[in-house]
Task: structure prediction
Amino acid sequence: MKKVLGYAAALVAALSLAGVAATSAHADGASADAASGISSSSSSDTYDASFSFDGGGDAAVPTADSSSAVSASSSSAASSSSSAESSKPEKPAKKPAKVVKSSKKMRGRLRYRKDSRTVLFQKGRKGAKVTLRNRKGQYVTKFTVKRDGKFSIKLSKKEAEKLAKYGKYFTFTVAEKGYKTYTVKYVIFK
Result:
């Protein structure tokens, strides 16, 4: 009985090992086929599932034919995936982001008084996304510039308190499409 259970355990272990190898080889081949645009409706596994048992032992040993078939299958899958990668079209290079000149940067207009609920800006560009943060870098609010030139935003009472909470200035970060993001300090007056 022990001998039969030993054979059965060895067979299950060998088949699970073969299944893992076949599955990984099939997955490599399927991903290479998918990358190259080939349909993989038929199975391309060349794994030979023949095993030889030694007479009195409890372990199953795969034959030389099956191990060479697995290595051949995995090497062909690797070569086809590398050729598929080299045939991919290259993406056009991104244009480098422009640096905004200091004379064109958005800035505060007049003076911002502590706990004031109106913040005045100038030199805004339509579509720019502005994020206000207090001196400790805590997020206060975010908005998008609606039109070029001078503009103002209204803050809630809590936002105004949070903006002026930790110091003598706050910062605003401006992100515009095609330009590098920049940060500007805005002084808080009492």
User: Anything to note?
Assistant: The beta strands are 51-53, 60-62, 107-108, 112-113, 118-124, 129-133, 139-144, 149-154, 169-175, 182-189.
